[in-house]
């Protein structure tokens, strides 16, 4: 086997071991019977592993740190599903949704303390604080559509990128290019997610609808308020997306972020092909 193939095999084994470690940490007989365990988020996994690799960490340290990051990320993400779980006729779903999120994210104390990563433990704690503050701003007034689109995107980027920024700042404090890469890839991912929401004919607060609201005339705003209060769906929303060119606007931001990410990647050595391919996959 060629040296390059050996290295690729080692890297694939590392990723697989991280996935197995996360699965083992999330395994809880009772919780798993009620709530489906989340699949580790691919971008968080690949970027986290790449940062650890660039910092020269060994395989065991990388597994522990990336597993910890994903446990926190997925634990916080489960809290976003509480409203959906609360709609279930079985009250246990809502209660266990809260407990599952706390259960997953709380494990980071043990994992990082055991590995001696005390500084990172503190940085992740600050990151969790920032993420919760961003979520609080988003849910403070759910019916308020006056929120600026760029501010909305910044809050989403805080929610999905702060843990990775904390990891980068701790392990690669001089890594400006890595800081840029995390920022551009997280923004690309957030914009892709927002564009995907355009197929949902529900008037809820998201980037495309905030953009429409800022451009809509008075009659359109009256109709949108009625749609919001009814909680119903209406495919006429798509006509407003076309009228105001919101998909074109958001897609242009997506292309810009993906292009910037690819430019930074060109200056970084040793990145996995799977990570390098992400910007292209997100703009398809």
TrEMBL record:
InterPro entries: HEPPP_synth_su1. It comes from the Bacteria. Pfam families: HEPPP_synt_1. GO terms for biological process: menaquinone biosynthetic process. This is Heptaprenyl diphosphate synthase. It comes from Tumebacillus algifaecis.
């Amino acid at each position: 086997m060629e040296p390059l193939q050996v290295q690729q095999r080692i890297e694939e084994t590392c990723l697989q071991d991280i996935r197995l470690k996360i699965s083992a940490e999330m395994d809880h007989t009772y919780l798993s019977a009620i709530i489906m365990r989340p699949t580790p988020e691919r971008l968080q996994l690949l970027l986290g592993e790449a940062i650890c690799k660039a910092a020269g960490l060994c395989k065991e340290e990388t597994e522990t740190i990336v597993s910890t990051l994903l446990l926190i990320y997925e634990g916080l993400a489960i809290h976003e599903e509480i409203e959906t779980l609360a709609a279930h006729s079985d009250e246990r779903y809502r209660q266990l949704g809260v407990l599952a999120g706390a259960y997953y994210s709380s494990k980071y104390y043990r994992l990082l303390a055991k590995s001696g990563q005390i500084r990172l433990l503190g940085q992740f704690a600050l990151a969790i604080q920032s993420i919760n503050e961003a979520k609080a701003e988003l849910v403070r007034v759910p019916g308020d559509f006056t929120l600026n689109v760029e501010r909305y995107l910044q809050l989403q980027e805080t929610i999905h990128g702060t843990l990775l920024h904390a990891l980068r700042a701790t392990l690669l404090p001089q890594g400006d290019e890595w800081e840029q890469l995390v920022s551009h890839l997280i923004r690309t991912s957030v914009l892709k997610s927002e564009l995907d929401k355009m197929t949902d004919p529900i008037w809820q607060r998201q980037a495309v609808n905030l953009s429409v609201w800022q451009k809509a005339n008075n009659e359109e705003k009256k109709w949108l308020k009625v749609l919001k209060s009814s909680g119903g769906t209406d495919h006429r929303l798509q006509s407003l997306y076309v009228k105001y060119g919101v998909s074109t606007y958001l897609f242009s931001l997506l292309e810009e972020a993906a292009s910037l990410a690819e430019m930074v990647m060109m200056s970084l050595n040793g990145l996995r092909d799977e990570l390098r391919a992400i910007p292209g996959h997100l703009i398809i």
